[in-house]
Amino acid sequence: MKKLISSMLAIAVLGSFTACGSESSSESSSGSAQSETNGVINDDTKATAEEKMTEHIEDTDKTIGIAMPAQELERWNKDGEYLKNRFETVGYSVELVYSNNDPDQQKEDVQALIDKDVDLLLIAAVKGNTLVEPLEQAKEKDIPVVAYDRLIMDTDALTYYISFDNYAVGKLQGEYVIKTLNLNNPENKYNIEFVAGDAGDNNALYVFNGAYNTLKPYIDKGVLTVRSGKTAFEDVVTTGWTTENAKANMEATLSTYYIDQPLEIALCANDSTALGVTQALESTYTQGNQPLIIGQDGDIENLKNIVDGKQEMTVYKNVNDEASVAFVVCKSILAGNTPAASLLGDMPVEVNYDSGSYNNGKKYIMSYLLVPTVITKDNLQYLADTGIYQWDEEHKYLDFAK
Ligand code: BGC
């Protein structure tokens, strides 16, 4: 019976890979600014990869400890759900914990997983540098540690990092602004403000740098003006990436610098911060124009705002794909291998391997980086095609597929 259930699950999972995997690799825009060693899989290898993904592992008694930051931030629920499914489908046990976005709690939660002697730790850190102590013990116990989405800093217990190319996320945001507002015409002049993520999350800096470095030439030329003068990452961070902090920060900026001047672009690190900016505009802004709001993630509320013209775009990272790549890497580690570039052939989606860019303060971490995609009101169907989202009855708004 157990076998039958797992083969049925396997078929269901396989179906979802076929739906989203092929979309991601054919339509996504590439931009791995930092990759040293790249490798991209092709369609022939994909079928075998998908078969391998769902191969049942006989008699495994291995347990994966998965630590996610918080359930309040939309995406992590999906990540947790997909990861758990993926591992359980082939026969592993999973201990999944969420830590209320609290670094101290996550430290305890990770410690508890180590005390239970899990066979592998897959962690999306709340804060990059607060897991040094428990991970020291993980190393002593030979428990492999894999960083999921966010790099874990200051520890040599970490070997692998699986994420989307975060610099590319910011770069896509910047490039979108250049194209949409035709910044190459020097007669065009716009006011822009940046909203970054949490200072303790390494991703936040990469996303900010990707966007800022792409737009800096236009700031230097005077095509873009940052009226607040806040052009350094530290000046624009949003504690916890939360909507309410982003709202408060933007309200302060609007009521100081945009009383008699229009804000034309708010380049936000992700959708929860973009939502805060939209709310700040509603509460505090009186200039009448709709600024171009840029985000990341494809959160439901933001997708509604895109349909309603309150947000311009979001950079989408298919978390199902990210979970699948994490799964392939972890499975290989648990089989006693040392995954490297050669594992790209087993990936169900387009991935770049990079062993020379992500240094966590102790060493370079072997990294698998997926490729993000720009979503605007014109290609929302892309999201429905992943199978993760579905249209409502009027075919107006998207929600998560049931
Ligand atoms: C992730 C983003 C997410 C943010 C807030 C980042 O590390 O890469 O996708 O929006 O954290 O949860």
3D structure, described in words:
The chain is an alpha/beta fold and 402 residues long. It has 2 domains: 21-164 and 318-370, Rossmann fold (3-Layer(aba) Sandwich); 167-316 and 393-400, Response regulator (Rossmann fold, 3-Layer(aba) Sandwich). It has 13 helices and 15 strands. The strands form 3 sheets. Strands 2-1-3-4-5-12-11 form a 7-stranded mixed sheet, sandwiched between helices. Strand 1 (63-68), helix 3 and strand 2 form a beta-alpha-beta unit. Helix 4 (103-115) packs parallel to helix 5 (132-140) and helix 9 packs across helix 10 (271-284). The longest helix is centred in the first third of the chain and has 26 residues, at 2-27. The protein starts with a helix and ends with a strand. Mean pLDDT is 89; it is low at 1-41.
